[in-house]
Amino acid sequence: MTDHFKLQIPGAKANGKVDVTAPFDGAFIASIETGGPDAVETALTTAHELFSNRNNWLSADSRIAVLEKTAAIMQSRFDELAIEAAREGGKPLVDSKVEVARAIDGIKNCIEVMRGNHGEEIPMRLNPASMNRVAFTTREPIGVVVAVSAFNHPLNLAVHQIGPAIAAGCPVIIKPAEDTPLSCFRLIGILLEAGLPEGWCQGVVTDSHETATKLVTDPRVGFFSFIGSAKVGWMLRSKLAPGARCALEHGGVAPVVVAADADLDDTIPLLAKAGFYHAGQVCVSVQRVYAEKRIARKLAQAIAEAGNRMTVGDPTLPDTDIGPIIRHAETERIHEWVQDAVSKGAELLCGGEKIADSLYPATVLLNPPEDAIISKNEIFGPVICVYEYEDIDNAIARANGLDVAFQAAVFSKNIDTCMHAFRRLDASAVMINDHTAFRVDWMPFAGLKHSGYGTGGIPHTFRDMQIEKMMVIRSPSL
User: Fold this and answer.
1) Catalytic residue among 249, 292, 330, 378
2) What domains sit in the chain, N to C, each tagged with a CATH number?
3) pLDDT digits (tens, 9 = 90+) for 103-125
4) Contacts of 446 by beta carbon, 8 Å cutoff, 6+ apart
5) 368 touches 398 (CB < 8 A)
6) Residue 5 CB neighbours (<10 A)
7) Residue 68: active-site member
């Protein structure tokens, strides 16, 4: 596979390079060129000129042809893409293969939403002012799209940001995470190979936060798509140029309520998978489980047993369940938060000690106190906290007690219990007898409170990257 990636900005000069290494063992994977302010200016100028001259706009049929060929090329390179995603991001190969399958399906979804794209008729001839008129809307691209992506799904997140932009007819510039840029750059290369004209999708790893901010906040940006930390996302939103629209996707703590009548044989593997999948580095990973007191210990111990059976190690091996943490500093932070909870009275049922600088095992804590760091913040690691409750409304109040809200879940055989929790949980989606990390890429996916702004999911992003333009026709014959 390629071991050096060039800046994906036509006509721009790189001002340096960074090495991309495997989080598992630090092995060199590839180098990638970085761009400074001059490169960003070149990218923005190219994208803006493409959009400003409407003669340059890509026809719908040409965009469909590019996306169809892209999906076919990705399918032909399935194993290569999966290995690369596993190596650079640390997600186990079995799960990276799922990511590649999702990414290919996401490209196909972009084609599907194009075929259903249309405006609507606006009622006229309803009063004297609207007589002799007919009105309808059409959809047009919003303008230049700038995307900033996260490390944890390096291929599929890029598809979610680049794919809808191309489908909508927008030139797009993407800045992938510096830890995991290779899958994104591989996707850009495939799009160009599939016939996307040069300049319509550009990629850059910036040389500094200041350069990234310059890219995002430029007045030529029509839409800003961000996936990453809340601190950075909200800061960038505050600096957007007037008129720029945006969507932000941050993290949550994915509360789960488990009633005593839940089917534990069904519930336990779902919670264990969703809490320990990708070493917990997922924005809707199961982190906080509120279990009715009479089953809480049994549930926690069973999750711990499931975690103990998981293989932690090299993400490129087929039998690995939990891969590495993306950075060594994050492994240390996770351990400090676990130790803080234990020192304040939490019961450690499994895990709790680093295996290596990059590896942390499946960890289960029973009843961490409310003042523990882990009870108040997103752990973003392979740690599940189980809290006892006696009154479900108290559990829901505790679940709603933080400034983040994303997806939540409730497990019970009683439909009334499920509906009660659904109505009262702060969440954009509540899963009934399923885990919080469930997602298909065409459904709405939205963080609330500090967890995000706007709605993700390919059809929703596609719609956000367009404007609705109305035509009103006046004719005496109408």
Assistant:
1) 249
2) 4-250+451-471 (3.40.605.10), 255-432 (3.40.309.10)
3) 999 999 999 999 999 999 999 99
4) 406, 428, 429, 452, 454, 455, 456
5) no
6) 21
7) no
